[in-house]
Amino acid sequence: MTVSALVTRNDITATASQTSFTYTFRVLEATDMDVYQNGALLASGYTVNDVGVTTGGTVTLDVGVPVGQIVSLVLAMPLDRTTNYQNSGDFLAGDVNGDFDKIYIGAIQNENEGGRSLRLQDVEPPTAGVDMTIPLKADRLGKFLAFDDVTGAPVVNSGTGASAYDSAAWSAYDFTGNGSTTAFVLGIAPHSENNTQVYIDGVYQQKDGYSLSGSTITFSVAPPNLSTIEVMVTSALPVGSTSSDLVSYLPAGTGAVITTVQTKLRETVSVKDFGAVGNGVTDDTAAIQAAIDVNAGGLFFPKGTYVVSPVSAQNYCLLVDSKTVRIYGDSAVISMASTGNKQAMRLVDSDNCSISGLKFLGSGTNGADGGQGILQLLSCDNSTITNTQFINANCDGLAASTCSNLIISHCIFDNCSKSSIYPNASTGVVVSGNIVKNIGGHTVSSNIVGAGIQSSGNTDCTISDNTIIDGLGMGILCNESGSTISKRTSISGNTVKGITNPSNINVSGGIRLSNGATDKACGTLVEGNFVQACGINNYYIENHNGAKISDNTGVESDRSNFVISTIVDATVQNNTAINTNTSNTATRYAFSLINGATGVIGGGNRSLNSSSFATSYGSHTINDGSGNNNKVVRVKDYEFSEHAFTFHPNSGSSIANGASVSANFTGITGFALGDYILVSAPYSLNDCIVSAYPVSSAGTVRLTLFNSSGSARTFASGSWKIRTFTENT
User: Fold this and answer.
1) How far apart are CA 238 and CA 655, in angstroms?
2) Quick one: which H or E segment has residue 414?
3) Residues 298, 218: one domain?
4) Is residue 713 in some structural domain?
5) pTM score, two decimals?
6) Within 10 Å of residue 225's Cβ, how many Cβ atoms?
C-alpha cells in the first residue's frame, strides 16, 4: 500500500461541544496517535477510528470540546521493528508492505520533527572540531544562549540581563601600524562610529580621525610604524528580535536591581502613546485621560497643543484621582475647548505629585465666570507646581484646598479672571518666585474681586519673592476662609505694582490683610515688600493681632500708604512711605492707625513727600518702646532735587526677558550716599522694572532696567528724570 503526504498532524478549532475530529494521515495502530486538547496531552477519553486507512479517519472524544479550543491530532508512531523474517520462511507481500510503510512513516515523522529544531543551513558544512551541541541543562539554566564569536558554537553567558548582552556584543581587534597603511579590516561591521572606541599606543582617538565603511576602518593619517592599534566595536543588534518584557535592564550604581526594559519604559508614558494628537484642533480629552489612568510614575506631554473639553456633568476636563505622578511637558499647551467655570485638570487625593513644563490655556477673558482654578488640587499633600503657565483663565488660575506641603514656584499667571493663585484651608503652602500679570476683573454684586495671590484660612503659608503687576482687585490678600483664620503667614520680598479697584476702592490695595472679628492672633509677618501705585492704600492690615510689619516700601498711594486698623500689639518698624495721598484727599497720611489700633510699637519709619505718621479716624495709641505714647514716630523732613537726562536703553537693541541693562549718570547734585532716589521714564516700560541708587562717589547715580515682562522689549531714546531726596536732620 502506498503512503502519501508529509502530513503528520492536524489542528482543528472546535465548534460548540464538538466530539468528532478528522485526521488526514495513516496510522498503523491506535497507539500511533497523540491527542492534545488546547495544548494538553490526553491520556484517555478518546477513540481512534479508521486505523490503517490510507486517507486517515476520525478521532472521537468522550466529552465535547468547548467552542474555540484547539484539538491537535499528531502522528506519534514508536520506531521499533516487530517482524523478523526467517530464512526459507514465507515472504508475504502484506508483511513486507507493512514493514516498509512503517519505515517510511517513521522517516516522515522524523523529518517533520527535525524541521522544528535548530540546525545548520545546508550551505554551511560542519566545522571540524566544533561541537554544535547545546550546553548541559545545569549549565544553561537561567542563562542566555549565544554563539562563540570565533567558532560559532553554542555557548551560554555567565551573567544575566544587560551584562549578558554586553559580553556578547563587544569585540576587540589589534593591529600594528607600519607608517603607511591607513585601512584595516575588522572581524565584524561596527554598529556605528558611536559604538567604536579606537586607541593607538593606549591613547584614545577622536572620531573625526577615522571613518567606517562596513567592516573596514580607515584612518585619515596612517598610524606610526610599530604602533599598537586597538579597535573595540559592537555589532548591530537586531531591532525587535526580543520582546522588551524579556530583555533585562540594570541601572548604574551599587545595589541597583535588575528589571526588564518593558518595566523601565512603562515608568513614564506619553499622552501620544494613547492616541493624543496635539495639533490644536483634535479633542484629546479621552486619550489624555487614558494615559492618566495607567497610573505610571510619569506622564509626558510632547511639544504641541492638546485640546481638552469638560467631561459630561463634571466641572473638569481631566481627573487625576488618588495617584502619584509626575506630569511634565516639552513646552506643551493644554487648551480649554469651551468656556465656563471649569478646570482643565483636577487633582484629588493625589499625593507626592509634580507638574512642570506645561501651559494651561483657558478659553475666556478677564472678568468672566469666576470658577475655581483652571488647575485645581483637592486634598493633595507634598506636591509641587513649577515652571508652568496659566493663561486666560475664566476663573482662578491655580486653586488648592485642604492641601499640605504644597509648593507653587516660578510659574507665570496672566489674565486670570479671579485670583491667579488661590490656596485655602491648607497647611505649609509655599508660593515663591512667580510672575503674576493682569489679574482680576471678575465681579460680584458689581464689585471687582480677586487678587494676584489670595491666601484664605491657611496655616504656615509663605508668600515670597513674587512679582505682581497690573490688574484689578488686590495684589496679595490674606484673609479667613469661613470661620478659619489665616495663621502664621509670612509675606516677604514681593513686588506689587499697578493693582487698582475702581468699582470698590475700599478693598483695593497692594497687600491687604484681614481676618474675622474673633480669634485674631495669627502671627503674621509682612517684611521687605515693595508696593507702588495700588489704589487707595498700598498696605492695609486689619484684625491681625501681633503682626510684624517691617522694612516695607510703599510708593504713590491714592490716599494713605500704610493703614493699620483694628489691631492690637502689632510692630510697625523701618517702613518707608513715598508720595502719599496722590489724589490730594484731605487728612490722609503716610501711616494711618485707625479703628482702635492699640499697643502698636513703632520705630524707624520714614515718610517722604508725605504727611506724618498719624491717625485719621478714631482713637489709638502708639508706643515707641520707651514707654511714651506717640502719634508721630521719627518724623523727618525731606528736600528733593530733580534732574533730566537722556537715556537710550541698550542703545536701541532688544532686552531679553530676564535680562537687565545698566548705566551710570554723573554730575547729579543735591544728594549724598544713602539718600533715596526715584527715576521716571518718558514712556511706558511695558512691565519692566527700573531702579536707581547712588554709587561710590556722590554725584553719580546708577540706573538699572530689568525686563520681567515675559518677552523681549525695545525702547527708544528719551528724556528721563531722576529725583533725589535729602533728609533734613
Assistant:
1) 51
2) strand 412-414
3) no
4) yes
5) 0.56
6) 11
> Exposure of 327 by Cβ count < 10 A (0-12 exposed, 13-18 middle, 19+ buried)?
buried
Query: Rounded to whole angstroms, how far apart are CA atoms 553 and 528?
Result: 7
Confirm whether 338 is domain-assigned. yes
State which H helix or E strand residue 541 sits in: strand 539-542
| Whether residues 100 and 170 fall in one domain | no
Q: Which amino acid, one-letter code, is at 29? A: E
Q: Cell 513703632 maps to which residue?
A: 602
Q: Do 285 and 211 share a structural domain?
A: no
User: Residues 465-519: pLDDT tens digits?
Assistant: 999 999 888 899 998 887 788 889 999 999 999 988 766 655 667 999 888 766 6
292/290 Cα distance (integer angstroms): 5
From residue 342, give the alpha-carbon distance in Å to each of 50, 295, 312: 74, 23, 11
Q: What is the mean pLDDT of residues 225-232?
A: 90
* Residue 428 contacts residue 457 (beta carbons within 8 Å): no
Is residue 145 domain-resident?
no
Residue 111 confidence (pLDDT): 61
Q: Looking at the structure, do residues 108 and 190 belong to the same domain, yes or no?
A: no
C-alpha 321/C-alpha 101 separation (Å) is 70
Q: Pick from 515, 535, 555: which residue ends a domain?
A: 535
315 and 177 inside one domain: no
Residues 284 and 395 in one domain: yes
Distance between CA atoms of 61 and 19, rounded to whole angstroms? 5
State the cell numbers at 384. 509641587
Neighbours of 718 (CB within 10 A): 13
Exposure b/e, 200-209, CB count within 10 A at least 16 = b: beeeebeeee
DSSP state of 433: S
> H/E/C letters for each residue in 167-230?
HHHEEEEEEECCCCCCEEECCCCECCHHHEEEEECCEECCHHHEEEECCEEEECCCCCCCCEEE
Domain that holds residue 94: 1-117
Which region among 37-46, 54-63, 240-249, 397-406 has the lowest average model confidence (pLDDT)? 240-249
Q: Is residue 618 part of a domain?
A: no
pLDDT at 354: 96
Termini Cα distance of the chain:
132
Beta-carbon-side half-sphere exposure of residue 656 (alpha carbons within 13 Å): 2
Higher-pLDDT residue of 10, 194? 10
Residue finishing a domain among 212, 234, 256:
234
Average pLDDT across the chain, whole number:
80
DSSP 8-state symbol, 664: E
Same domain, 110 and 187: no
- The mean per-residue pLDDT over the stretch 637-659 comes to 82
List the grid coordinates of 549.
510689619
| The dihedral sign for the CA sequence 376, 501, 435, 270 | positive
Domain count, the chain: 4
> Which residues are CB-contacts of 678 (< 8 A; sequence separation ≥ 6)?
555, 578, 692, 722, 723, 725
Rounded to an integer, what distance in angstroms lies between the CA atom of residue 13 and that of residue 573?
90
Q: How many Cα atoms are found within 13 Å in the side-chain-facing hemisphere of 587? A: 6
Dist. CA 436–CA 470, nearest whole Å? 9
Give all strands of the β-sheet with 18-23 in edge-to-edge order.
18-23, 57-65, 46-48
Query: Which residue(s) pair with 495 in the sheet?
Result: 467, 530
Please, what sign has the CA dihedral across residues 354, 356, 362, 366?
positive
Do 289 and 164 fall into the same domain?
no
Query: Is the per-residue pLDDT at 540 higher than 70?
Result: yes
- Whether 548 and 513 have beta carbons less than 8 Å apart is answered as no
Amino acid occupying residue 428: G
> How far apart (Å, rounded) are the C-alpha atoms in residues 391 and 363?
9
C-alpha 320/C-alpha 343 separation (Å) is: 12
Helix, strand, coil % in the chain, rounded to nearest 5: 10, 40, 50
655: which residues sit within 8 A by CB, 6+ positions away?
A: 649, 661, 688, 705, 707, 712, 713, 714, 715
CATH of the domain at 294: 2.160.20.10
